[in-house]
Every structure is written in structure tokens, then in C-alpha cells.
Amino acid sequence: MADLQKLTPFLMFQKGDAEAAMTFYTGLFADGEVLVLERFGAGEPGAEGTVKQGVIRLGEQQVRLFDSPQAHDFDFTPSMSLFVVCESAEEQQKLWSALSDGGAPLMPLGDYGFGPFGWTNDRFGVSWQLSLG
Predict the structure, then answer these.
(1) How far apart are CA 133 and CA 71, in angstroms?
(2) Which residues pair with 88 in a beta bridge?
(3) For the chain, what is the total number of helices (H) and then of strands (E)?
(4) What is the number of other CB atoms lying within 10 angstroms of the CB of residue 101?
(5) Domain spanning 2-67, CATH architecture
(6) Beta-bridge partners for 118
(7) What are the two backbone dihedrals, phi and then psi, of residue 19, each rounded to the nearest 5 degrees?
(8) Which residues, 6 or more positions from 60, have their beta carbon under 8 angstroms from its beta carbon?
């Protein structure tokens, strides 16, 4: 039961992109890993083969993902973002390049008076803030 009490970001995809996002995100981080990947089967509420439950690890953070079988009038918003403290300028630039490619930069990578920082929505609509620690 202890695992149920952890605070874990949960990303709900509406276009069947959860598995692609899992692969993309775990490929960006050197220690990224898919921990759980369970797909909807025939006769279940979601489209067969889409993600029923997914869990990835990025650094020390677990993130849950799934493909919603229900359509919603809402999607991702920058008011909720994943904040990453990068260990080097090279890591920050690598993540920025990958996450902003096909996405929508909100604050281009630059110095805003509190150090190198960038904020972008990625190609899936998930919002990321990248800070240099």
C-alpha cells in the first residue's frame, strides 16, 4: 500500500500517444526506464493495444501515463509542468532541443536573471521547465 501514497505525476493522453511518449522520455534521460507497460486488450474500454497503464522512471521520479478511453474537453496545460534541474549546460541544451522539437517553446532557453532556463511544451503537449542546477 505504501506505493499508493506516493505523489506521482500522471499524464493522460487522448490520441494514443502514451507509448510513444514513454519511449521518447526514457530515451532522453540516461537513466530513463519503462517500469510498467500494460496495454488494453480486446473487449476492454480502451482501443486495443493502447496504454492501459504505464510507469516510467526519469532520474528518481516515477511518472504514470495512459491512453484515455474517454474523450475529454481538456488536454495538457502549461499551468502544470515537469521541472528538471539539469546538471550541465550540455544536458540542458540536449533536453531543450529534443523537447522543443515539434513542440511550442514558452520561454526560449536563455538567462532570465535567475540562471539559464527554458520552458517548452513538447510535441505531445506536455509542459517542461529546464533549469540549470
Answers:
(1) 38
(2) none
(3) 2, 8
(4) 10
(5) 2-Layer Sandwich (3.30)
(6) 130
(7) -65, -40
(8) none
Q: What is each CA distance from 129 to 2, 37, 53, 83, in whole angstroms?
A: 29, 26, 25, 5
Dihedral over Cα of 41, 54, 80, 132: its sign: negative
Is the CB of residue 119 less than 8 Å from the CB of residue 129? yes
- Please report, as a single letter, which amino acid is at residue 88: S
Rounded distance between C-alpha atoms, residue 125 and residue 82, angstroms: 12
The pTM of this model reads: 0.91
Return the C-alpha cell found at 67.
Answer: 491512453
What 3-state DSSP class applies to 92? helix
pLDDT in tens, 17-54: 999 999 999 999 999 999 999 999 999 999 999 999 99
- CATH architecture of the domain 81-132 equals 2-Layer Sandwich (3.30)
Cα distance between residue 87 and residue 10, in whole Å: 25
